Automatic annotation (TrEMBL):
Taxonomic source organism: Rhynchospora tenuis
Gene Ontology molecular function: oxidoreductase activity
Classification lineage: Eukaryota, Viridiplantae, Streptophyta, Embryophyta, Tracheophyta
Protein name: Enoyl reductase (ER) domain-containing protein
A Pfam short name: ADH_N
InterPro entries for the chain: ADH-like_N (IPR013154), Chloroplast_QOR (IPR052733), ER (IPR020843), GroES-like_sf (IPR011032), NAD(P)-bd_dom_sf (IPR036291)
Length: 273
């Protein structure tokens, strides 16, 4: 059914985020040499990362400094860039010189959410976050000003203790619908939805044809190398960290995959080889 949108060819090797060492380069590669430690984002439709050797484009490859572990770097490409794109789309300045906003990050314990909370705080925003009870302390440690357990009435309704509506919501779960998000938005508030469910897709389409000031935008990752470099630098400077759920040896990649699709990881799942 999805073949027209994702023209994968089988057999398909999944995974787009890799960190590793360069063993061979093509004749036109100039910025990278054999032996370099790198982190890369592979093409989403081609994948190829879940393998001992991956073919990557120089355009999506960034040098990994020694201070950044390969696991920390490997977490960054898709999740870190999606979080970064959400915050850049509202003109966040990551040195804190921009305009502060009141932001909600849902599923803040996930891969994207855990980076989004940290980047929002670097931007000087006030951050409310949702996650499960077991991750409240972790999400607070990432900088969130207030954390709501999504299994409580406050977490379900997304209401913070001050009752203040959000200027922006970075929605990182399919589990929250527009009918819950909308009343929590301030007058010109915007939802940046990275995981839209059907109701939110409809809200996005309706928003194009109506004059409602409250909007839902769908975020589809389009950032590349420069932004990945920016994230790697933040990790090197100790301003951003990768939350690692678990590490699996290559032989147990099947278990790692099952854990990933289960939707209950805390941060990123890393496969080592
Ligand atoms: N648009 C894009 O370009 C883009 C890029 C990357 C990812 N995505 C999508 O974005 C979504 C998030 O990705 P991810 O990798 O960050 O997810 P993830 O790591 O799988 O998120 C899992 C975490 O979310 C928490 N969670 C689940 N439902 C929740 C809810 N209703 N409220 C609050 N927390 C909840 C879980 O907590 P518990 O274990 O306690 O339940 C778990 O810690 C996925 O649907 C993914 O496909 C989109």
């Amino acid at each position: 059914m999805l073949r027209p949108f994702f023209p994968f060819k089988f057999p398909f090797t999944p995974v787009t985020d890799v960190a590793g060492e360069v063993v061979e380069i093509g004749p036109q590669v100039t910025a990278i040499k054999v032996g370099d430690k790198v982190v890369c984002k592979l093409n989403f439709t081609k994948g190829g990362g879940l393998a001992e050797y991956a073919v990557v484009s120089e355009k999506e490859t960034v040098l990994r400094p020694d201070e950044v572990s390969s696991a920390d770097a490997a977490g960054l490409p898709i999740a870190g860039l999606t979080a970064l794109q959400s915050l850049k789309s509202i003109d966040t300045k990551f040195d804190g010189t921009g305009k502060a906003a009141n932001i909600l990050v849902t599923a803040a314990s996930g891969g994207v959410g855990s980076y989004a909370v940290q980047l929002a705080k670097l931007g000087g925003h006030h951050v409310t976050a949702t996650c499960g009870a077991r991750n409240i302390d972790l999400v607070r440690s990432l900088g969130a000003d207030e954390v709501l357990d999504y299994n409580t009435p406050e977490g379900q309704s997304l209401k913070n203790s001050s009752g203040k509506q959000y200027d922006y919501i970075i929605n990182c779960t399919t589990g929250v619908s527009w009918s819950v998000l909308k009343p929590n938005l301030s007058k010109n508030g915007v939802v940046m939805d990275i995981a839209p469910n059907v109701s939110n897709m409809l809200a996005f389409i309706c928003g194009i044809f109506t004059f409602s000031k409250k909007k839902l935008k769908i975020i589809v990752l389009s950032l590349g190398k420069d932004d990945l470099q920016f994230l790697v630098a933040l990790v090197r400077e100790g301003k951003l960290k990768t939350v690692i759920d678990s590490k699996y040896p290559f032989d147990n990649a099947r278990d790692a995959w099952a854990k990933s699709v289960d939707g209950h990881a805390t941060g990123k799942i890393i496969i080592e080889m």
